[in-house]
Amino acid sequence: MHRRRSGRRSGPGRGPPYLRNPMGQKFMVSHSTFDPVLAEPFFPKAREQPDEAPFTQELLKRNQELTPTLQEQTSVQNLMTKINNVLDNLIVAPDGAEFGVEEVRAVGSYKKGTMMLGHTVADLAVILKKLPTEADILSLAARVQKTLKEEEKADNTPAADYPMQANEGGFNITGSDGSLVRVLITTLPKNLRDADPTKHVDVKLLEGALATIRHARWFEENAFHTSIRVLIRLLKDMRKRIAGFSGLTPWLIDLLAHRAAMVTSSRQPLNINAAFRRALQLLASGLFLPGSLGIIDPCEGGQVRAHSVLSLEEQDSIATTAQTLLRCLNHGAYNEILGLTIEGIPLVAVDTEVTSWGGVIVTPGPKAYEKQEGKPEEEGEGEEGEDAEESEPAVQDEAEDKMETS
């Protein structure tokens, strides 16, 4: 007689946590999606590849159009430096103990070098030694504004008002030239467990600000290649213009750009033309669909799939749109996809309209998922079971999304 061992069952019926579906879900995380770049050795090319030099030139041209001007960059940098210095001085100031500033970190697109044209906004995350209240935020904001005005007066420069607007998770300060710095308030991680929702700032906002610090640190260490920054700008621009990509968060775009440009068998980064095409291929193959392993969030513990923050509608829309754009791109429609205007040729909504390229008709794919009224989604926020931590990044990505778009 064989005794049954106690403990967890192993074998084919039970895999690691990220391959098991949380309780109440019918979608099983069971596979990695097809990646043409990693599979290239097994699928040799049947013919020579066309010259992609024009495509590369248009990608670089569009990136140049989306890059902030030198004046915009200087404007944001000057205001950022002034506010950063004020906050740093509060750490050692004799009367600074009441504010309890522990550390100041630059985060967001300013820190990553992926700012967009016309978006003269930078972000700072301020870590306090204590759990902040709304009164603490107002007090700190007023002190920063007062110090900025005093410094302007001492330098005999034209006085600026530095308009300040406080909000639940921090405050914004605007410069005289229209540049804006958003200050996100958070606290030391060990304090979060003691947060009182009736007195302190919402713990979800505090966690979101801490997440932006982790994202900025990871990006600085892993996503320093130029192709990644260029690809991020292009994807952000597509997200603004193409409704099907609206669900992509800034953090998902960062991870996707890194995956498309850097994860290769040769460990050599891809050129921007190959990285852009691969990004669409990954989305079209279902990288962010239910059942896909997707991209494991490098800044979260517990093997969290980064795309778990997306609703099923958003996942379906992203994949369907990418499939349509990829078919158009394969027939040379890169100007239309990039939003480049050509004199005498009207703009075409390639993601929603039936188009023809060299006699080949491309029809946008239909939705595969239709949400039923009154029926909760099986995947997304509010997951249970051993993968419950996957629901946490939803709040963090929401905070970073507001930083990038507001």
UniProtKB/TrEMBL annotation:
The keyword Iron-sulfur does not apply. Gene3D superfamilies: 1.10.1410.40, Beta Polymerase, domain 2. The gene is LOC116308318. Its main location: nucleus. Residues 1-21, 361-406 are annotated as: Disordered. This is Interleukin enhancer-binding factor 2 homolog. Residues 25-382 form the DZF domain. One of its GO terms (molecular function) is double-stranded RNA binding. Residues 368-377 have a biased composition (Basic and acidic residues). Pfam families: DZF_C, DZF_N. Residues 378-406 have a biased composition (Acidic residues). One of its GO terms (biological process) is positive regulation of DNA-templated transcription. It is found in: Nucleus. It comes from the Eukaryota. Transmembrane segments: none annotated. It comes from Actinia tenebrosa (Australian red waratah sea anemone). One of its GO terms (cellular component) is catalytic step 2 spliceosome. Keywords: Activator, DNA-binding, Nucleus, Transcription, Transcription regulation. The keyword DNA-binding applies.
